[in-house]
UniProtKB/TrEMBL annotation:
This is Sema domain-containing protein. SMART domains: PSI, Sema. Residues 538-558 are annotated as: Disordered. It comes from Caenorhabditis briggsae. GO terms for biological process: nervous system development.
């Protein structure tokens, strides 16, 4: 990846001084960009936190500095840690933010950016009611435009009537894009705001319902939404994916209004009585429920999801592909067949990509295609990384190629696993029944380093040339992880064998030593004392022999797979990945860390 342009906009000195008097955290006095709006083909607006004073700035594409600034309440969150989704609607931006530093109540706001920039004041702002708790300690995930509706997904504290031990419940909210506002004194409030509970749960006869109630992420496809959920129960490492129809969501919201006859219209409250009821009780009775199409058990917990709808295999069968990011830096590729009946749809885990260190906060994922080659872009708070969207090239035999069930992969010419999107051959087959039976771990994470651009240097590029101390790039750390993972298995058994040999040698030495010096006859007491002495010596000696064995037999390994790699990352992510690698290395006394590519910044 290549940097196209860079725009610089920091908090002003005055804003920093005011912020320092309020906040004890210096990081909160920086400027974090949160909103983007394109005014013309060569002019755009950025809005940021600006040291706890939300501000927007105008930029020309050829200028790196802002042309002018304007205060923008509600256009950006005050706190940099807040998640604030937004969406453009004609000349408006619809977003959800806390409007004042002293308040904790988020407001759903629609503001005309063009009029705001021309100096036309607050008569064009639309918001949710103040003081009525439209959102209860809410965490917002994403916002989407569906025809004339704007849907937004979030989680919040449950109402008393739906608590049942749940800490959080998942919600979807909805407003009309062209909402004119309410009547009379409600003219600055939404007349179409509703919210509904979203459920992703397992229900069986004669058992309690198991809820995946922690909302992790949402992915949009042309006809559906995919939700990633986690269980709130401690000790149960379970995450799930549920699928919801856009049509059914819109139908559920329309059922609460009187003028919901037209399926293409966005229903809203026209009567004052109906609007008063909606302001007090925006939560509709109907729940939007679904059973999981995929459930994952393990240490990984879902944090982000990306959907790719209608991928085709060699037989032209349709599949949906989900890329699910986890808290351990893995990305799971889930394949969902569209040929199965609706109630029987289940996902299949194709492959796990290991691309990031643990606890990397994934903020976004997207697919990028250039010259027919599709790549997965992963964005974290510290880096932007691209990796292949399929791992066909890493398969070494027919069974490994096809047993993953990846519709992108096929076995060709009896010798190679190919990506059918870029390489179509007559000999290609996706029938796993023709493969020889070979044992392999189908779901072991595939360590897959970032891709290298063809037009870049022949070595990975790391964006930390200004560092005085040379630090390893993320590419080198990833290669070390490959070596570490490859070294852990075979040498474990060799170490156990060496410990056994040394322990036996010590016992034999002790036995012959005391045999030469003992009397010809031993009483029972002295015999017991002798036996106890041997046991004590053995107990004290065994651990030291284990340590000695490990120190004198360094673990070495070679990696059969070396993929050309490139990293678009900052020095901070390299530090974190290097620390993660070192913590893994501490499990061994001596580890040989040979890297096929060694790049320093």
């Amino acid at each position: 990846m290549t940097e196209i342009s860079r725009y610089e906009w920091s908090s002003s000195e005055e804003a920093r001084k005011n912020c320092a008097a309020i906040s004890q955290n210096p990081a909160s006095c920086e400027n974090y960009i949160r909103t983007y709006f394109e005014l013309t083909s060569d002019t755009f607006i950025l809005c940021g936190t600006h040291a706890l004073q939300p501000t927007c700035a105008e930029f020309k594409r050829e200028n790196t500095k802002p042309l002018r600034l304007i205060s923008a309440v509600g256009m950006s969150p005050i706190d940099a840690d807040s998640t604030s989704p937004f969406i453009r609607s004609n000349e408006n931006i619809i977003t959800v933010n806390v409007a004042e530093l002293s308040s904790s109540e988020p407001l759903l706001i629609r503001r005309n950016v063009v009029k705001m920039w021309k100096g036309i004041e607050n008569d064009v702002i639309l918001r949710t009611p103040r003081g009525l708790s439209s959102f209860e300690q809410a965490n917002f995930l994403s916002m989407h435009k569906v025809k004339k509706e704007v849907l937004f997904f979030f989680s919040e504290s449950p109402m008393e009537t739906e608590g049942c031990g749940l800490h959080k419940v998942a919600r979807v909210g909805r407003v009309c894009e062209d909402d004119p506002g309410g009547r009379l004194s409600y003219n600055k409030e939404w007349s179409s705001y509703e919210k509904a509970r979203i459920e992703c749960s397992i229900e069986e006869n004669d058992t309690d319902t198991f809820y995946f109630n922690q909302f992790a992420g949402v992915a949009e496809s042309p006809n559906s939404f995919y939700g990633a959920f986690r269980s709130q129960l401690a000790g149960i490492g379970a995450s799930a994916i549920c699928k919801y129809s856009k049509k059914s969501i819109s139908k559920s919201f329309a059922s609460g209004f009187r003028d919901s006859d037209s399926p293409d219209s966005c229903a809203k409250a026209n009567e004052l009585e109906e609007l008063s009821r909606l302001r007090l009780k925006p939560l509709i009775k109907h729940k939007i429920s679904a059973n999981p199409i995929y459930i994952f058990h393990g240490k990984d917990r879902f944090v982000h999801v990306l959907a790719q709808e209608d991928s085709r295999d060699l037989s032209n069968r349709s599949f949906d592909i989900l890329y699910v990011g986890t808290n351990l830096g893995n990305i799971l590729k889930i394949v969902i067949s569209n040929s199965e009946p609706g109630s029987n749809v289940t996902g299949r885990h194709a492959v796990t990509l290991k691309v990031l260190p643990s606890n990397s906060k994934i903020t976004d994922m997207s697919l990028y295609t250039k010259n027919g080659v599709e790549e997965l872009i992963v964005v974290t708070e510290q880096s932007v990384i691209k990796v292949p969207s399929a791992t066909c090239h890493l398969a070494t035999n027919c069974a490994e190629c096809l047993s993953h069930g990846d519709p992108h992969c096929a076995w060709a010419d009896g010798a190679e696993c190919i990506d059918i999107r870029t390489d179509r051959r007559k000999s290609a087959s996706q029938d796993s029944g023709t493969c020889d039976v070979v044992s392999f771990d189908n779901h072991k994470p595939v360590l897959i380093p970032p891709l290298k651009n063809k037009d870049s240097l022949k070595v990975p590029v790391c964006l930390c040339e200004t560092e005085k101390v040379k630090k390893p790039c993320a590419t080198e750390v990833i290669q070390k992880e490959i070596v570490l993972s490859g070294s852990s298995e075979p040498w474990k058994y060799i170490t156990v064998f060496a410990v056994g040999v040394l322990t036996g040698s010590i016992f034999n030495y002790c036995y012959f030593y005391f045999s030469r010096n003992k009397p010809s006859r031993l009483t029972d007491d002295s015999s017991n004392e002798h036996r106890q002495l041997l046991l004590n010596l053995g107990g004290k000696t065994a651990p030291s022999s284990r340590s000695s064995s490990s120190m004198t037999r360094p673990i070495t390994t070679t990696s059969s797979t070396r993929v050309p790699i490139d990293a678009f990352t900052t020095s901070s992510i390299a530090d974190e990945m290097f620390s993660s690698t070192l913590s893994s290395a501490n499990r061994f006394n001596t580890v040989s860390m040979h890297s096929s590519i060694r790049t320093y910044c």
